[in-house]
Amino acid sequence: MKDIRIQSGIGTRLSQLGRMTEAHYGFVNTPIYRGSTVLFKTLDDLEHMRARYVYGTAGTPTIESLESAWTAITGAAGTVLCPSGLGAVAIALMATLKHGDHLLMPDSVYLPSRSLCANLLERFGVETTFYDPLLGARLESLVRSNTSTIFLESPGSQTFEVQDVPGITEFAIKRGIKTIIDNTWATPLFFSAHEHGCDLSVEAGTKYLSGHSDLLLGLVSANAATWPALKKTAQSMAMLPGAEDCYLALRGMRSLHIRLKEAQSRGLEMAHWLQSQPEVLTILHPAFASCPGHELWRRDFKGSTGLFSIILRPGFTRQALAYMLDHLSIFGMGYSWGGFESLIIPFDCSAYRTATRWNPEGFCLRLQIGLEDIDDLRADLRAGLDRLSAPTRAA
Ligand SMILES: *Cc1c(COP(=O)(O)O)cnc(C)c1O
Questions:
Q1: Any atom of ligand 1 within 6 Å of the Cβ of 245
Q2: Residue 277 sits in which domain range?
Q3: Residue nearest to atom 8 of ligand 1 (CA)
Q4: Claim: this prediction has a pTM higher than 0.85
Q5: Rounded to an integer, what distance in angstroms lies between the CA atom of residue 2 and that of residue 17?
Q6: Fewer Cβ in 10 A, N or C end of the chain?
Q7: 247 and 126 share one domain
Q8: Is 182's C-beta closer than 6 angstroms to any atom of ligand 1?
């Protein structure tokens, strides 16, 4: 496989990485390899595992193409693949934690990652403390003698607090504490996690890497010091994505930079427009000054993507919100994001936050801006906002 990580631009790298053209009779893409068994020629080869590939769970050309490409894109020492983004979070945590350890988790973390701490890690003897994502270097005051891992997610899920990643990794490195970041929103194209000192970086490939809402995938990349632990953990569990999903992720990867560029400009255009609508109180988008940690985004990130939140002015009823959302014609209501289609969901994290208080005055909505025409998206939302104040039909 070509290693072109140093000399080329991102478009060239996304186009060329992870290809084994010569091994596949000149065909451009690595095919879908399905397989458990690999046959050995001789007893001696079998006993010494002497073969390019030895068994399905130890890797196939399809898996290797995606892993090696991601390793080059993230500037990591190695990558493991998982069947979902949440699976990737779990494997990353299991690679750095052991019984008796203490874990620091941001209060703004993706909710299923939060649940994993109580539902799984606690049972294995790991204690979790949730922290204010805006603490930055002051997080050091929460470190205990048994703190082995600090998890970060920047910006935070739904509420978009941007974290001071270098401020945290600086003291973590000095104290020998491992850091894991969920980098799904920015992707390695807009935030280089390892350059900013993170040991492990998690990406839900389900989102922008797939780009088409048709697969589940997780990726964890590791720096050189953490790669052996990650590899050993992943190999022990052999939780691998299916070959088709790896193939689709590789296909998505080829156009990732183009789609992200579109996501960025469309996200900004829609957020600016929403800011000027009278029903909207606040924009929670890292590129906006109203977003907590905006200055850190300006300092550390290379771009923004198409997912952001808004807070509506107070005073609307739930019935009015339902009237707005139930009749949107382009924006769909559903979880996940990063696909070609626009989505909207209401959210409220006031019930489960423990280190911070989430107490907005109005309803909160998270928007994913897809590839539809902006005029149509604006018209759909404008009609929806009109319905907020329209007299609702009797139930
Ligand atoms: C969606 C998401 C995940 C989980 O990805 P799945 O593939 O849906 O399990 C993890 N982290 C963040 C920030 C996400 O948005």
A1: no
A2: 256-388
A3: 85
A4: yes
A5: 6
A6: C
A7: yes
A8: yes
